[in-house]
Amino acid sequence: MSKSVFPENFLWGGATAANQYEGGYLSGGKELSTLDAITGGNHTTPRMITYKTKEGKIETCTRGAALPEGAVGYVDPNQYYPSHVATDFYHHYKEDIALFAEMGFKCFRLSIAWSRICPKGTMELNEEGLAFYDKVFDELLSYGIEPIVTINHFDIPMYLADELDGWSNRKVIDYFLFFCETVFKRYKDKVKYWMTFNEINFLRSWTQIGIHQNDQQAKYQAAHHLFVASAKAVKLGHEINPDFNIGMMVAYIPSYPMSCNPEDVMEAIKFNREQEFYIDVQVKGYYPAHKIKEFERKNVVIKKEAGDDEIIKEGTVDYIGFSYYMSTVSAANPNEVKYVGGNQMPAVKNPYLQESDWGWAVDPLGLRISLCKLYDRYNVPLFVVENGFGAIDKIEVDGTIQDDYRIDYFSKHVAAMSDAIELDGVELIGYTPWGCIDLVSAGTGEMKKRYGFIYVDMDDEGNGTLERSRKQSFYWYKNLIAANGMQE
Predict the structure, then answer these.
(1) N or C: which end of the chain has fewer CB within 10 A?
(2) In this structure, is residue 345 part of a structural domain?
């Protein structure tokens, strides 16, 4: 191959999230978000929510659990919370962006902390927070790096969670749209690419959407409010700047049938439908028939206001952003499978694949399969906005970090994207590997589970100098970008 198959304007870059990377959790007028009350964890110890009961007692529960009625988030001064400092982009943004520019980034995906712009999530603005992102975007643009902004990434201002029960309350749509209108107008000449909600199919519980109930009715009612909010945001953004590209973002985990037994095939269809449901609504603009039937079986009644269906139909997105880390397997008989680790969920072991140190199946071909399935089904541009390999990195005596395992992972996934473009005709606009610089793991709260091309000196207890250093993969990715994805 003498010429790259990737488009000349392909967006090579990296991805982060405010609550895992930014730090400065109470700096510059920011107030608490739900993720600020989530502790760290590891392989055996889950991340916990610390909260205060309505009687004033301090309690904890796992981050996916329902909080008791009347409970509010609480930051215990005796606990360590990884989001509070994370890896401190808030104070290191110039240094970090210079390193991204050295790698040759064409874009950088980050999220805006809602509680930094609107401290309580309401219609009260914090100018110091707005000014911070002005500085970040200006710094990126000075190097020719396109900002890719996720408007809301896995958290909600704690006030909205505690006082309004988060996204179960329709009033939150209006507060979110005020936030969107503020950032759309403020940054309309600095940001072109937006995504409304990160991994919308994984949004659940108090941790991520501020709801106190975790039953199916509460989950899907909140999801409906998210759909309406996203659709309204898309329409609003296009009115403010018609050149905006506004996408959705889903965690895409293709599931293969365990065998050619038709029952296994049907189980895989059911699994894949659950994530595709969220894409169907935001790309096609309506609830799919199978989901309506499921609601009927489960006695889930979505409360809609007049015009909601029209709003969802009119507010479809411009592109699909998705994360791809792994695949899984579906089987009709659960006694026949073995479970391993996974992205926000346990996954079924595939006997044909190896796993990472955290049990995630490594499946480069699965990325091509995902690109084919999504493009064939939706025929809109695709953007791989997360993909990466969490591993324990070792600093050698000479100070280098020889992460050949990460280079091998990325090389094979880039080859899969290349095949999807050249052989399958997929329209792919960009690639932003997750945690391009080390940050806190969303799933476990660990620092030792590292993804970055750039090492940050910080451990699982919050100790470290925060010094940045280049891993071997840094130089590999720099060369890959310079060659526009061509590999030897």
Answers:
(1) C
(2) yes
